[in-house]
């Protein structure tokens, strides 16, 4: 017995009383099963199936501590009030330290709620409203301002959203819209004077401006203007060859061939100096003009006269000028242009080894046809194009659709849809989106003026997929295109 007592004093767990074993039940005494050679007790995780990491059940809040405290408190009170048993030897062994421990337990035990008296039961109970109501303040409250009932929010129609988005985010400010053409015309006049004095032997025509902003087809900003430089050719010495009859097999490109060299030898035309083989080279003409723009023109002096700073782009293959003014920044691109046999050809060859090709431009015909149709039925095609061009130019996925592709879609649609009134702007807008999705699915957008030309021929397949997916979503949810970029 002494050895057992010593073991109990050395091990705190051994001295701690063990809880009473609960009475056995049929569920607890279910027979154990064997799973894969291992003994599994009923109720274990293996018998129940995996249900995630097991967690200890939290004790019921306030239940065990309150009950134990009440029993401990009653036991101490009974010990204090009951008379001491003279024959009990344990009563004499109570030390002062144990008395202080009992006193500390009494103070630490929370007091039970005050027992309700009989007189309190006769008093009326307060309503919940009185219990929750705050005490009135003595200070005088300011007079309440009469409440104005807010009107229900107005749901904007698609047409109202389109017009609001255009006026808020896409319309060019009037100051820029008027200043940019003025600067461009002044630079155009200076460049014209230089070419006539520097190259009097080359029959250049009069420079003129070309821009969607000037022609009413919409522009995201007044920062891009084209300068068209006419190249006047003698039609008896030059002829056109369609691009589809050449190695490029593209009907949108043309060759300008020198004819009758046996009767009119080389040097008879002032443009013979720009020939490669027997063809007028657009690339050679651009290189000559690029050298003039970069090295021969005093742009700082011209810029000081116009109150701006003008820089030609040296590294660019295009003939570009960057103009910085206090109120606007402008980009001007120069294009040599040839007009022959009712064709307008730009010196904009494709990238590659072919340097003699000239790109056919339909821009002038597009503007003329759209304005003609609007004048005939008081339509809103130009307004629709301004909105579409602004949205596509500002969108990172759709920016390559702006310009000619959108104009040709509107012209194709005008052949089948006659209602282009201002009130039908939203309907025509969605119809243009549907037509674009159809053309992108085929990968072909035929030109309105030449059905052999595919305006999507230079788009990559990945670009077509991204554009088609974006526009397909926008058909059912046009607001996707109206988010601020």
Describe this structure in words.
The N terminus is likely disordered. The strands form 3 sheets. Strands 3, 4, 5, 6, 9, 10, 11, 12 and 13 form a 9-stranded mixed sheet that branches. Helix content is 41%, strand content 13%. Helix 9 crosses helix 15, helix 14 runs parallel beside helix 16 and helix 16 crosses helix 17. Strand 7 and strand 8 form a beta hairpin. The longest helix has 25 residues.
Taken from the alpha-carbon principal axes, the silhouette is globular
Count of beta strands = 13
The rounded distance between the terminal residues' Cα atoms is 89 Å
- Give a short account of the largest sheet: 9 strands, mixed
Low-confidence stretches: 1-69, 89-97, 103-109, 118-134
| Multimerization status | single chain
Q: What Rg, in angstroms, do the CA atoms define?
A: 46 Å
Residue share in β-strands: 5-15%
Helix content: 40-55%
Number of helices: 18
